[in-house]
Design brief:
Strand content: 15-25%
Bound molecules: 3-isopropylmalic acid, manganese (II) ion
Largest sheet: 10 strands, mixed
Strand order of the largest sheet: 2-1-3-12-11-4-5-10-8-9
Order of helices and strands: EHEHHEHEHEEEHEHEHEHEEHHEEH
Shape: globular
CATH superfamily of the largest domain: Isopropylmalate Dehydrogenase
Structural class: alpha/beta
Distance between the termini: 21 Å
Number of domains: 2
Radius of gyration: 21 Å
Amino acid sequence: MSNRKYKVAALAGDGIGPEVIREALKVLRATEDKFGFQLDVTQAPVGWAGIDEAGKALPDDTLKLCRSSDSILFGSVGLPDRDPTIPKEERPERAALLALRKEFGLFANLRPVRLPTELAHACPLKAERQGEGIDMLVVRELTGGMYFGQPKTTETLDNGETQAIDTMVYSTSEIERIARVAFKSAQLRHKHLTSIDKANVLENGVLWRDVVSKVAADYPKVTVEHMFVDNAAMQLLLKPTQFDVVLCENMFGDILSDEAAALAGSLGMLPSASLGVTNGEKTFGFYEPAGGTAPDIAGKDLANPIAQILSAAMMLRHSFGENEAADAIDKGVGSAIAQGLRTGDIFNAEDPQARQVGTTEMGDSISAAVST
Ligand code: IPM
Ligand code: MN
């Protein structure tokens, strides 16, 4: 029996979370048998499911499980229509998602955006703008900037007005460590890095540009370009093929990664990894699809499980170093797409090769491809 054993906390959360996690676990089981490692998976509630089962979005037992695990496979949390009266600090987005990012120091968020040629129809850009295919990696800083900077308050002023304050803070070391993640990723890809900032207006932007330029000296094979965030938003639509690795602070990365995601046809295709510092050989990671809970289609076998399945592959790669198994999942997804299997979000009725399938059938097919 293999001594490669990994402990995974599986937190399905709300909406489509449970059904897409189910398919990802199915595919993971197939890799386990084939590549000879063992996954010790424990499921626990989070989000509204946590509130319903244990009174809070991140129940104590769930947090305890995460602390004793090697990684977290996460579904999605947040249901906009549930109880608008619950205080904002207790809502799943803040109390579970942001809390977990902070708790585990998950400063590096990797969001690969890829438009497979078979899905060119799902991209909102004309074919000539898609070039040879869209393929970029957004590297987003995840534990700093305006999301966490203090002060963060809403106050009533003497004149009766209400004033809200969010603070953008970055220190050199925070910029440097995320820049190194981006440069290392670029070295493994097409060796081009676009660093995003707003150095023409923000102090943070000036520091960001300065630190990234200094770090660049350690990665001479990578070409660096600095781009203002507003221009980057435009360039993503005009010429998305110019990007390889895109490095952003937290808020800019949030916005640009959604824009980039739209280019890949469907949020249902986009995985993500959020990584903490590497300790010896081990990198604790949090793996979640970029899309949300999609409550309108939840429980109907309509959701696209691919983002969750690719997130599981990222977990095998980045936290466990099981690269062959991760490659097998990536290939399995590619072959399901090549065979014409499409969930509703990526279905094109005019494509004679395409066949619309449900969440379960997509998962079955990918898991079968992994096993063979
Ligand atoms: C994301 C999400 C989160 C974020 C929300 C749900 C807090 O939009 O992961 O991109 O803003 O980071
Ligand atoms: Mn977002």
